[in-house]
Amino acid sequence: MQPGDRVRVDRGDVTNEGVLLPSTTRDHLVVKLDGGYNVGIDRTEADVEVLESGARDVDEGADAGGGEASEITFDSDLPTISLISTGGTIASTVDYRTGAVTAQFDAEDVLRAVPDLAGRANYRGRVVANILSENMDPSIWRELATAVREEIESGADGVVVMHGTDTMQYSASALSFILDSPVPVVFTGSQRSADRPSSDNVMNAVCAVEAAKADHAETLVCMHATQSDDACALHRGTRVRKNHTSRRDAFETVGAEPLGLIDYEAAAEAGADGEAADDAIEWNREPIARGEAADGDDENGDTSAEVGFYPDLDADVELVKFTPGMDPAAWEYLDGKDGVVIEGTGLGHVHTDLIGRIADLVDDGAVVAMTSQCLEGRVCDRVYDTGRDLLDAGVVEAGDTLPGTAKVKLMWALANADDAADAMGRDLAGELTEESQPWR
Amino acid sequence: MQPGDRVRVDRGDVTNEGVLLPSTTRDHLVVKLDGGYNVGIDRTEADVEVLESGARDVDEGADAGGGEASEITFDSDLPTISLISTGGTIASTVDYRTGAVTAQFDAEDVLRAVPDLAGRANYRGRVVANILSENMDPSIWRELATAVREEIESGADGVVVMHGTDTMQYSASALSFILDSPVPVVFTGSQRSADRPSSDNVMNAVCAVEAAKADHAETLVCMHATQSDDACALHRGTRVRKNHTSRRDAFETVGAEPLGLIDYEAAAEAGADGEAADDAIEWNREPIARGEAADGDDENGDTSAEVGFYPDLDADVELVKFTPGMDPAAWEYLDGKDGVVIEGTGLGHVHTDLIGRIADLVDDGAVVAMTSQCLEGRVCDRVYDTGRDLLDAGVVEAGDTLPGTAKVKLMWALANADDAADAMGRDLAGELTEESQPWR
Prior knowledge:
- The structure is a homodimer.
- The first copy, chain A, is an alpha/beta fold.
- The first copy, chain A, contains 11 helices and 21 strands.
């Protein structure tokens, strides 16, 4: 039984057919089902029958890719990286190249689109969605988190999520709260599609794969650090923001340096034979350490460790922005909501006339959290009268949490925290800088 | 008749009493009424009677300020700067010092609070509002613009508006659209009140006065350029944004260098005797030129020129922000609005499900303009399907206009432009960079 083999798997009442994917664990199989989904299967609980040898895939690769066939065979010396597609520009480039429909996106498609990825890892391709990222919503965040968990538990040494750039920061935040991952989860995307000379897709993909192979367990966004093709920045998922509509270096860590920087040339060279390119990464802060492997002794640093997984989200949370002259009717629909995040002005203010409205929402049981449209800096409602009135009304301060991240966090906190209001003032996933100073 | 004299002015049916303020024009008098408002009075149409000599004011200055009395007398060699207060941290420092109520804010209060202003100009103090700036609204923008116009038409060589920092960018935008001013209109404020050692109020006030005396006619925001006390940045009112909740250098021009930089030490020194400190200003772009003086030959560069004044605003405009997972009910209240500005994702997108809603708003006669929550860069809805569908629905693109500025602009355009939708795609007051490239 080899990767590429077509198999039938019987588990109790459930029978699946599909193609066996590379896996670095001995305990789990990963099978790509004909519908495009991958399932991780506990080998001890399943009967597996090989229906067809995997030579089919290798032949197809040779036909289409012109000699890349050898790179999609499983090499036990290489780490395994799962490439999860959700759509967006970087994934659309794959579609352009293959003309393939969504469900057929797999490792071959990726290697045809970005041949530079070959030899760096064994790849598993997986599709969670094929949408432009403005259509992302909490239910897809959960599906995505579930897929990432399955990939890790079936032995992936790292996960790369290909995502549209418009809402990448929201999805990366969601996974930061939902997952306690023992391996890197690296979001990447493309600001310019592959048919443009200035496309960023190759460098972003190579850097993301190398970041996913490296020795840490952060949930990151990996995108161009500058307008040149020299390095990608590694942003913490909860602190990153798309700050430009079109530039390749649109993504920035707000209020701090990015977690790290990965040098493209050094990473591409060091990681070409499947080695980890840790020397190509310069960390500005100590990253979260990779988890211990559950079955320990794999030479590829097999990390099929437990994945902390808290997928519940209370989607009944709204983000509302205050601007001068706004119609108070804008907030009428908030009645009965479980949570509201306000994007206030300055240290966290709204028009005095709205404070009574907020008090009513809190009285009705909503958690109302304050953030700032300044984006940088902390809210502090103890300085001015308006702020003190807001605190009296029951508003909770979200520190320096970005408004979009605060919305995702509140969805998560309402479903998972003992005290969601309290949780909004504490750091859970790098989204909030805890400081002793009231404000500075 | 001298500044400081108490006068009675008869104009037809209207009689006012108050204190004569410094004026550099021969055609207009400026009288501070007992209610705190200043009125500009065409001298040819009024009978003026001196009720009491101005010695009173000088005495009071000497009592309270310890020797600054001479600086509040009118010096015909000095330019005249109007200081308009709307409230906020910088004005609250004045209140702290004097314990005065709003209506008593005048030149003496300012000089007591910031003695470094003495000798740089003849000052007129004027109160438009005394509110924290989160309570600003379009009706106060109109009052403020009216006051600025009156000050300029009664001979002010420049106007400084003291404003809370929370919504300064909205008010500065509003005045940029409403006024076509022949002299500088300079907004300034304070991120830290005067009772804090790190207060920025003195440097900001001095730089703002010197910027208002200088040779240009821009509507600016003048605030700390860095965290040091070395220079203030001069931001175009329509391109500036408060990007930090508390830092003294919170204000930034988005997507470009500020219009200019004014060196604190150089400006303080050069302007100390009433000279213009133009050499202390480094312009990054050519500023709008000062208007020709209507009566020409005043040695102080008297510029009592015509003020272009278009004060109508259609306040029935909302700014709404799209975020993933939002409840479509959030937009139900938009029915019947005259204008809607959307803060979309990336190049200007919203969830596909909202496009029909937008089409309905447009069909009902609303102008719906798209901006981006990225803040930097242009919207461009010709690249992806969602964008093209939005254009088909009748959305107009606001280029690289900031979302908050776009809201103010749409209020103005609906009341003043022949075709408000078309105006949103053109530059009216430096808010939009017109480019031939579709996007970059």
